[in-house]
Design goal:
Keywords: Repeat, Transferase. By secondary structure, the chain is mostly beta strands. It is about 0% helix and about 30% strand. The chain is built from no helices and 26 strands. The strands form four sheets. The protein has a nine-stranded mixed beta sheet with strand order 1-4-7-10-13-16-19-21-22, with no helix packed on it. The protein has a seven-stranded parallel beta sheet with strand order 2-5-8-11-14-17-20, with no helix packed on it. Strand 25 and strand 26 form a beta hairpin. The N and C termini lie far apart (about 50 Å).
Length: about 210
């Protein structure tokens, strides 16, 4: 690993492979055998687990957890407070092929990478797969093993193959209680939410 000012305040385990052109924020830890590629930017107080991969130019916010062997392919954007479970994969190619139609090995210029976007506070369960280009909304929850092929709304809990919404969750991550008239309540915090036209938003009052 190169020694740069951008990673000097972070903890980088000796077996991790962090490109000298990457930026790692203060208070962050990159664990054993993880790889952080060139021009990736990781914010403050993040955890990059053992064997995780962060692709070139990926943008990761503050207080993000990438669990062991999570794979975040470029040009993904991961906002603040996101959790990515073990062995989850954020893909970037809708039509993957190793070779082109002439049988030649494809190179970077032969295809267009489409990144996954993870909005603030959302969580991705272990071994979930997110198809290139999808967005997971704020505080949403993707169940373990799900395959997400379309955008996930804010506060939605999605599960299955392909993933479908099965419940609403609050910022605390627990399923919400239906209190009638399109209103939902978090059993842990008491926070109120309002459902309209198939979408959920925080109520004005708490």
């Amino acid at each position: 690993m190169g020694s740069t000012e951008g990673v000097s305040a972070a903890r980088i385990e000796p077996s991790a492979d962090v490109d000298e052109r990457a930026e790692i924020g203060p208070g962050s830890t990159v664990w054993h055998l993880a790889q952080v590629r060139e021009h990736a930017r990781i914010g403050a107080d993040c955890i990059v687990g053992r064997g995780a991969y962060v692709g070139p130019g990926v943008r990761i916010g503050d207080r993000v957890k990438l669990q062991n062997h999570a794979l975040v392919y470029e040009p993904a954007v991961v906002e603040d407070g996101v959790f990515v479970g073990p062995a989850a994969v954020l893909t970037n190619d809708l039509y993957p092929r190793s070779v082109d139609v002439d049988g030649r090995l494809k190179r970077g210029d032969d295809w267009h990478a489409r990144g996954v976007t993870l909005r603030e506070g959302c969580s991705i369960g272990g071994r979930a797969v997110l198809v290139a280009g999808v967005t997971v909304g704020r505080w949403a929850l993707v169940a373990a093993g799900a395959v997400v092929h379309r955008d996930v709304p804010d506060f939605a809990l999605v599960a299955g193959v392909p993933a479908r919404r099965i419940k609403w969750v609050g910022r605390a991550g627990e399923p919400l209680e239906d209190v009638g008239d399109g209103r939902w309540r978090c059993p842990r915090t008491g926070e109120q939410y309002v459902e309209k036209d198939g979408l959920l938003a925080e109520a004005a009052e708490r």
